[in-house]
Amino acid sequence: GSKLPSEQELSRQMGVSRVSIREGIQHLVSLGILETRHGEGTFVRELEGGQVHFSALIPLLVLDDIDILQVLEYRRIVEKGAAALAAERATDRDLAEMEAVYEQMVRSCHDVAEFAHADLEFHLVLAKATGNPVIIKVNNVLRTILEISMDNIVSTLKMVDGLHYHRQLIDAITAHDPEAAESIMQEHVDRTSVRLKAEGGLA
């Protein structure tokens, strides 16, 4: 029930930007730990009923040592299925969002941090296009882990593969070809795993 200090005050206390504070609050809201009340501020929620099961996932969000190959195994299983569903269900609005994020990737191809952010955003937009709230919510819960792994991947492997495969994914989803979308996503994740092993980028 306690009210959090303002974003500005939290930023001052913790010595980080207001953007970082805002993203942290959004993560905790998605977990059901905080709630934002319009015109009042952000409050700590009581964990009860359906919210309790989230507590077991919270430690995953603060792990310092994340095995990126295990994250890629998760992505290989979930994202190839998500790509197929997106190809079946994507709306014109979903496709426009994918194109917009892809253009952001192109514009930020000389900035690793910005590109990694846009790369992850593309995968989240693709998940949204499935129309499946479970897939969307699980990605939101795991967002911090996905962000850390994506930063490492882009830092190690650079941007060429991301641009290549994401363009192919958009084309397959636009064509509503689930088999092609699934195959492209699997090849994308598998190639990333192989290249990371070769580069030793497993931290």
Structure, described:
- With 203 residues, the protein is mostly helical.
- The chain is 67% helix and 4% strand.
- Strands 1-2 form a two-stranded antiparallel ribbon.
- About 2% of the residues have low confidence.
What pattern of helices and strands is seen along the backbone? HHEEHHHHHHH
Strand content: under 5%
Mean of the pLDDT scores? 87
Reading side by side through the largest sheet, how are the strands ordered?
1-2
Q: Would you tell me the structural class of the helices and strands? A: mainly alpha
Low-confidence segments: 49-53
Residue share in helices? 55-70%
Rg over CA atoms, rounded to whole Å, is 18 Å
How many H/I helical runs?
9
Largest sheet: 2 strands, antiparallel
Q: What oligomeric state best describes the polypeptide chains here?
A: single chain
What best-fitting shape do the alpha-carbon axes yield? globular
Number of strands: 2
Ends: how far apart?
Answer: 38 Å
Helices and strands in order:
Elements: H1 7-14, H2 18-30, E1 34-37, E2 41-44, H3 68-89, H4 92-107, H5 112-128, H6 133-141, H7 143-157, H8 160-174, H9 178-199
Antiparallel strand pairs: 1-2
Provide a compact summary of the structure:
This protein is mainly alpha-helical and 203 residues long. It has nine helices and two strands; from the N terminus they run ααββααααααα.
